[in-house]
Structures are given as structure tokens and as C-alpha cells.
Amino acid sequence: MEAVLAHLRAAIENGEYAVGDKLPSEAELCRTLEVSRPVLREALRALQTMGLTVSKTGKGTFVVASAVEDPTFGDYAASDLLEVRRHVEIPVAGYAARRRTPEDLDHLTHLLERMERETDTTSWVALDSLFHLAVAQAAQNPVFRRVIEEIRDALARQSAFLNELGGRREQSNREHRAIVEALMDGSELDATDAMAHHLDRVETTLTDIVRPSRAETPTEGGPEA
């Protein structure tokens, strides 16, 4: 999927498909790129998430931008989402370290263990959003929980995007474990540092996806078999 995505993205950024153009049909792209339809559809979904294309039911996929600017996850742009997460989730982690109950720690530990065992990306993404909601719950402030609930769909979409294109799952599990360990220790400083590190890594991965090195992006020819 990554190879197909890189090929289609390069074709758009290099002007082979200009803004307003309709991409070839799925059947044609599958034949040209020699890939299965599920693989192609994953790549097309990623292009849309990046903001390069839009899919119109019954009409096809159309190019709407020549370069990736700011991916959108549900109702929110990635930059807006990350800005809010830094202002909310970092202090929330600190409050959670001070106020968490034994039940909160049991719940977070259970979620973490399930995430570390999970191999299905869709299931892992669902657990990821539950994890961040559980940290907010541990802060014992219903407003924090409501804020995370409001952006929960966007968090899940972002998580899926990062896992599909950035291979974030194992690294994210390690970061989540550091957060849980800080909460168990009751260390406000360690908890805020662990959450800040987690969000730093999210931003780095997003940046790597949005602005890849030109040396790593193919400019001609199809993906390798």
C-alpha cells in the first residue's frame, strides 16, 4: 500500500494529475499498478485523508490539491488537533497522576495490556482512543473527559493514519506504558513529560508523512512488485 500511495502521491505532486482531474478508475489503476483492489482502496483513502483528493459517490476520485498541506481527521485539521492536545492532554496527565484511583490504574493497565497484545490495526485504534479517554477520566474532572470525547473520532482517525502510514503502533505502546508507569508512581512531572514525549512523536511522524524526503518519493514508474 505504501508503494502505491507513494506512486499516486508523486503523480499528483508532479502534475501528472492536476487539480480538478479525475483519477483513472479503480479497475484501471489496479491493472496499471498490478495491485489488488483492497490495497488500492487503502492508498486512495490515505490520499483523501492527506487532503489531495476527494471521492464522489458514483463519479470517482478527483484531485483537489497539488501538495499535502494539513491532513484532516474528521472535523479537525491535524495542526489544530495537535495544538489542542498539547494544551489539554499534557496537564491532564499531571492531574491524573495526582488524582487517579486504584480503579483508574486497573482500567489503564488492562487497556495497555490489550493494546500490547492486539495485532489488528482497527481494534488497536479503538483501544488507543479509549486509553486517552481513560487518562482524562483519571484526572477526575468531567470537563476534561468531555473535551476528549468531543475529539475522540478525530483521535481515532489520526491514530489509524499514523499506524497505516507511519508504523506507529509498537512505539506508541511503549509511550503509553511510560504514561501508565508515571501515573502509577503518582509523579506529576513524569506524567506530563511522558505525555509531552508521546505528542512530540505523533507530530514527528505526521511531519515525516506530510513532508517526506524527495529522495524517498518515487517520481516515475510504478511500485515494485
Automatic annotation (TrEMBL):
Ranges for domain HTH gntR-type: 1-66
Name this polypeptide is given: FadR/GntR family transcriptional regulator
InterPro entries: GntR_C, TF_FadR/GntR_C, Tscrpt_reg_HTH_GntR, WH-like_DNA-bd_sf, WH_DNA-bd_sf
Entry-linked PROSITE patterns: HTH_GNTR
Protein's organism: Streptomyces gilvifuscus
Keywords, comma-separated and alphabetical: DNA-binding, Transcription, Transcription regulation
Keyword Transcription regulation: yes
